[in-house]
Amino acid sequence: MSNTKETGLFETGSTSSENEKQSISDNEIAESLDQQNILTQYSEEDVMSMGRNYAIKHGLDPDLFAKGAAIARNPIGYNRMEFLSQEEKEILYQEEHQKWKLPKKLYYLIIMASMGACVQGMDESVINGANLTYPAGLGIGSDSERDSWLQGLVNSAPYICCGLISCWMTDAWNARLGRKWTIFWTCFISAITCFWQGFCNTWYHLFIARFMLGFGIGPKSATIPVYAAECVPHKIRGALVMMWQMWTAFGIMLGYVFSLAFHKVPDHGIGGGGLAWRLMLGSAMLPAIVVCLQVWSCPESPRWLMGKERHAEAYESLKVLRNHPVQAARDTFYQNVLLMEENSYTSMGFFGKLKEMVVVRRNRNGAMGAGIVMFMQQFCGINVIAYYSSSIFVESGFTETSALLASWGFGMINWLFALPAVFTIDLAGRRTLLLITFPLMSMMLLLAGFSFWIPEENEKARVGVVSLGIYLFAAIYSSGEGPVPFTYSAECAPLYIRDVVMSFATATCWFFNSVLALTWPSLKNAFKVQGAFGFYAAWNIVGFFLVLMFLPETKGLTLEELDDVFDVPTWQHASYQLKKMWINIQRNIIRKDVEPMPPLYKHHRMALTNAQWEEKHEVELVENV
């Protein structure tokens, strides 16, 4: 890590003075509030001088950036800064106490980016309805082992492409095109390939078209969460970045709607299984077209622009994403300081970044956490239901139309129950949501799977319990393992390797997605639905312990302030969490009087100091503002 005092940014043109000694209490306050804030080692006067130098260097407003630098140094001490206007103090107070009052442009950006997730969701679920007719139409509809594998191969084609090729192109695409234009071109590819799927007449032609669809899914899924994470304020980053998963769930639900709409479309003389499944697969192009039309008016990621040394453009981008220019100046200046601190301006090739991801402990731990949550997003079993729920419901006793309606219900629940996570992901935290939901998902999969043993003469009971298990599983998934993986992966790495880590994370997600789609028909034939669901129920228990031991919490910290969290050695983190679990069991279940363990991270150890200071000055802040 570089020494920030030696960089040109910190040539303040002043030396320590009596003024600095007089403000020592202010320094102590700032340091107690945020030990991760590297600006607290300087006086307010020196930091403001840094802000002016930075602004002059990049053709920006020196006075505005002097204010922004002072606020960055002491974020909640703005009320004592006499150089701030009353309007600026009110804006900063509003930011602290009304965190959802954000510019319309920021919400527009999040909605646009999330519509890209809708594209992915529809791509995943329209194949569900198509599975009822296209296999027989293309000659792979029997129960033979060959046809089961071929159906799985066709269904998994986009995700094979993502896992092996397209996700690894993300770094190159983003470096050349930027975040928003990567989103544009990947959605364009998705629209073209969805249209193409409707004209396939052999299983291998459909495989090729769906494989090419992977070039639209992979880089898009790696870019959109990062784009959102780099644009939103850190206090609500989790809630806004998880819009990716929420709108993926909406796209899944929308895919079921189109499957229902086109299910009974007549063949009209078209061979290869008729017209219905072609319209289903082609309908996924609609949200992709919407994104292509919207993305033009969105700003580029400010952090990406700063990584390209385009600081004035980064400030202009932040100015439309924040409520006031002083907030944009603060964030621009502080992001630059932190990016310099973590060496994110260093020019490095793809393989150099890949090496850094592996050999640097902070980066390796972040990538491992992202890999765990992405792997478990697939092996929790959710996409088995997303791809094959119609077939599963038919096997449990539904008619085809009823199975499609039941699948639509699954999609609706998957979408609606993402809403609670919007309000809990930044309060309870990513890790807590996972630890609560993994055991519950395991129970619901066992409930759904074991219900297939209910005798056929009790068909209504079997259908009801199977549906209950699947619906409860979807609701629990959407509140935990659904929103966390892409949010976590987008925030766990420093900027200079963020695209590579996100490529690794999404490649992990899509590779194991392809494994699920490829193996489910054969797994179900070999072990029946009961055994197949039991297999994924066991993986949910494995996921609980992987999260417990290896997944640090990321809530509430800026992207660049996570170094302390991810630099803890893996063995130390795992040992601490296992001991803490045992102590919690003794305290809360056995009711034994055991001393709690001290916090593991520095920012947790400072929490009491922070709370005491904030309580002391709360009345003063409210009255003066």
From TrEMBL:
Region (Disordered): 1-30
Matching InterPro entries: MFS_dom (IPR020846), MFS_sugar_transport-like (IPR005828), MFS_trans_sf (IPR036259), Myo-inositol_Transporter (IPR050814), Sugar/inositol_transpt (IPR003663), Sugar_transporter_CS (IPR005829)
Keyword Amino-acid biosynthesis set for record: no
Signal peptide: none
Bias (Polar residues): 1-17
Family the UniProt entry places it in: Belongs to the major facilitator superfamily. Sugar transporter (TC 2.A.1.1) family.
PANTHER family the record matches: PROTON MYO-INOSITOL COTRANSPORTER, SUGAR TRANSPORTER, PUTATIVE (AFU_ORTHOLOGUE AFUA_7G05830)-RELATED
Protein known as: Myo-inositol transporter with strong similarity to the minor myo-inositol transporter Itr2p
Higher taxonomy: Eukaryota, Fungi, Dikarya, Ascomycota, Saccharomycotina
